[in-house]
Design brief:
The protein has one domain: Glycosidases (TIM Barrel), CATH 3.20.20.80. It is α/β, with parallel strands linked by helices and 481 residues long. An 8-stranded parallel beta barrel has the order 2-3-4-5-6-8-11-12, surrounded by 4 helices. The mean pLDDT is 96. Helix 10 packs parallel to helix 11. It is built from 17 helices and 15 strands. One of its GO terms (molecular function) is beta-glucosidase activity. It holds the Pfam family Glyco_hydro_1. Its EC number is 3.2.1.21. It catalyses: Hydrolysis of terminal, non-reducing beta-D-glucosyl residues with release of beta-D-glucose.
């Protein structure tokens, strides 16, 4: 090490701040159904989440996304909030039934106009837009025709991707095809706790393959329509799976959950294949030879520019026993086809309002894994955050100290990964606003901005101001004490 390097290393050790790369993206994220509302305006038709949330008993207290937080009408206010807080990037999703109401045919220009105006406002505010094409709101017309259980839905997704790319491709550089296809397949078609609420393990596996194929078709459509500078990704909610004990039985449980929780997406996207053990674990549920057609894996495995990683909490499993962890909702049906016998356990330590354990080492472990499997592939933390029991004090503040500590711990883990050579390109706090939290309705608050749902009043929480300082300076303090 040279004298100059020695001095710089000493300065870094005495600096009170963890400083991130100058081009690091500091942002927040949302999804269309959770915030937009206006579910019947400007040509939009129902999605599977409209149908699911209006089905009695599916969502807490019968809540729906009909109004959500009215972002469709308040988007200028919300962009102004982001600008005031100092965010450099914003990840939003496009509502498929707002753009293509039946999931096929020409686009509805009024729907595209909303996203054109939103992106223009973001750019004028100096905020980089990241567009996600699919965040779970499949047009109900396509579900009626078979949904993700049938191959045609993947083909329709490719056509939809072309429409959005043609409309926004001159404005948006960063694109994500799918958000958390594991949830779409296994919570939507396996356990049934998410829309469309089906509960068949074989159908869930078919849905997983067709979602992978949709990523491939969508990525190809984006490549064809976008400039060469566009950055393409898919966002995966990877599971950091740990054994309850060191027993061979519990190690086998980890392998099984890793296969159907992680490698069912990672292997085809990064390597153009499905792993043999996944086939073996699930052969009694689906005919993989018939499901995976020639050319599918080549399409799915076409190179991506970035990988989106969504992380909240690790999983602890054992080979037998009763599950005590219900982080994927309460259902008599398992979201783990072929591994229904695996038991999930509550990890030790502090919990969020979702009863999810707080453990930033899981994020670091996943970043290291991705770097080991695909060295040099940039990773964006496209979701990370926590639900808290937030409320506005009489003084008009929301003192969410726990969320500040959570974000600080996880950004520290990200910084350590960057120091170790992992190319992490950005961090997106989930979420900008308190919103419709899927089957939990409005009972859980993930936002850094508090929303009073009856009045729609927005109040930035203390975490928003803390995170805003990090965004403006590109650094976080080494310690909160």
């Amino acid at each position: 090490m040279t004298e100059v390097q020695d001095r710089k290393a000493a300065e870094a050790r005495t600096d009170d701040f963890l400083r991130f790369p100058p081009d690091f993206l500091w942002g927040t994220a949302t999804s269309a159904y959770q915030i937009e509302g206006a579910v019947a305006e400007d040509g939009r038709t129902p999605s599977i989440w409209d149908t699911f949330s209006h089905t009695p008993g599916k969502v807490n207290r019968g809540d729906t996304g009909d109004l959500a937080v009215d972002h469709y009408h308040r988007w200028r206010e919300d962009v102004a909030l982001m600008k005031d807080l100092g965010l450099s990037a914003y990840r939003f999703s496009v509502a498929w039934p707002r753009v293509q109401p039946t999931g096929r045919g020409p686009a509805v220009e009024r729907g595209l106009d909303f996203y054109r105006a939103l992106v223009d406002e973001l750019l004028a505010a100096g905020i980089t837009p990241l567009a996600t094409l699919y965040h779970w709101d499949l047009p109900q017309h396509l579900e009626d025709a078979g949904g993700w259980a049938v191959r045609e839905t993947a083909e329709r997704f490719g056509e939809y991707a072309s429409l959005v790319a043609e409309a926004l491709g001159d404005r948006v550089r960063h694109w994500t095809t799918l958000n958390e296809p594991w949830c779409s397949a296994f919570l939507g078609y396996g356990s049934g706790v998410h829309a469309p609420g089906r509960t068949d393990p074989g159908t869930a596996l078919r849905a997983a393959h067709h979602l992978n194929l949709a990523h491939g078709r969508g990525a190809a459509a984006l490549r064809a329509a976008l400039p060469g500078t566009a950055q393409l990704s898919v966002s995966l909610n990877l599971h950091q799976v740990r054994p309850l004990t060191d027993s061979p039985e519990d190690q086998e449980a980890v392998r099984r959950i890793d296969a159907v929780g992680n490698r069912i997406f990672l292997s085809p996207v990064l390597r153009g294949r499905y792993d043999t053990d996944l086939y073996q674990d699930t052969a009694h549920l689906v005919d993989w030879e018939q499901l995976v057609r020639p050319g599918d894996l080549a399409a799915i495995g076409a190179p991506i520019d970035q990988l989106g990683l969504n992380y909240y909490s690790p999983a602890v499993v054992s080979g037998s026993g009763a599950s005590r962890d219900n982080c994927h909702g309460s259902s008599e049906h398992s979201p783990w086809p072929g591994s229904e016998h695996v038991a999930f356990h509550q990890p030790p330590g502090e919990l969020t309002a979702m009863n999810w354990s707080i453990d930033p080492t899981g994020l670091r472990d996943l970043l290291d894994r991705i770097h080991l499997e695909r060295p040099g592939l940039p990773v964006i933390i496209t979701e990370n955050g926590m639900a808290c029991e937030d409320y506005v004090t009489p003084e008009g503040e929301v003192n969410d100290r726990d969320r500040i500590a959570f974000v600080h711990q996880h950004l520290t883990a990200v910084h350590r990964a960057i120091e170790a050579g992992v190319p992490v390109a950005g961090y997106f706090l989930w979420s900008l606003l308190d919103n419709f939290e899927w089957a939990y309705g409005y009972a859980k608050r993930f936002g850094m901005v508090h929303v009073d749902f009856p009045t729609q009043r927005r109040t930035p929480k203390n975490s928003a101001h803390w995170y805003g300082r990090a965004c403006r300076t590109g650094a976080v303090p080494r310690s909160l004490s």
